[in-house]
């Protein structure tokens, strides 16, 4: 039961187990980001938990119902559930009877994503694996009676090349140990030392994730969570020390300041080049991260909108983490599946402008709106991705410096195109007249430019 305690004992006592990285932000932040993450560009976020049972309003259902007592949530419970019904009673209905991890992996792989991030535990505290530190508030003891994290991790590695990422909330809204520490202004650390830190060791040692997506600091500083101590162990001694990537949510004040890459805020998309690696996490359902039975079609981002977001994010140096919310019984709804598969169709044609690419010297064209640039060193090519097909039959790219004898322009998925130089710099590319069935893809289109200065 206490095996987790042996390896990190030195960490809990002195804050580090030795090694290249010390338990300070200066040292932790000096670690280079593993190269695979920047090359991957696109991942799938999965919000799944007990909140998927009421599937009303938001994945923050419990907090809005009993923490904030929002009238709409209170009314929903009064109309649909008997008096005395508790949030814990939802767990028995979280049975995941239709959960097929192989099917999930097929959908995720078809999207063109390179990694996933599964919520192993949200702020409600319910763990999707059989945690020894959950007091039976987990998917093995209640509800599905299955280790959902293990099943998905196993299927992911068996049937795909996707990398495993795990989300874990530091705090829990109504955990009495956390609330007691909060009442003590976080001068006591009972909750992190007996719950949060042991869970983190448990999921890293058992599942070996290559993304560890921390969240939910509960307004407590990183010193309360001993974040730098844990990260020093993660980077020095853990089984994923060479490949693991972490985000910036490790305590109040650390977001957009410390950690492996920055998330800054949900749906963070600055629209310009950011020097530090960052990630844009967003939801297909614009109003919730978890599944909502009350969602309307207009709440879902269209494929056009999603691809535009992907292109803008990558052009500005970010990764794109797109969220889906499965149902309580383990289904990924057709609208989510359709969006993911359509993104995959687009990437089959335009992927060389996305994967392994870097930000170019300009991110979007300074004359023509809706044109975003990336650069692929391996292909020695610049890519101009335009979000709408111009009615004029041509497109002006003002920023590339071209050569009459060397520059070639190819419409990805089609063939080389004719072009003419313009002054002072740039080129005018003549687009082919194509009927819909001849178009290389249905949403955004990419020009590959080689022989450009």
Automatic annotation (TrEMBL):
Signal peptide range equals 1-19
What keywords are assigned to this protein?
Glycoprotein, Glycosidase, Hydrolase, Signal
Membership in a protein family: Belongs to the glycosyl hydrolase 29 family.
Q: What biological process terms from GO does the record include?
A: fucose metabolic process; glycoside catabolic process
A GO molecular function assigned to this protein is:
alpha-L-fucosidase activity
What is the protein's given name? Alpha-L-fucosidase
Q: Where is this site: May be important for catalysis?
A: 281
Organism ancestry = Eukaryota, Metazoa, Chordata, Craniata, Vertebrata
Q: Does the keyword Signal apply?
A: yes
- The answer to whether UniProt assigns keyword Kinase to this entry is no
Q: Which GO terms describe its cellular component?
A: lysosome
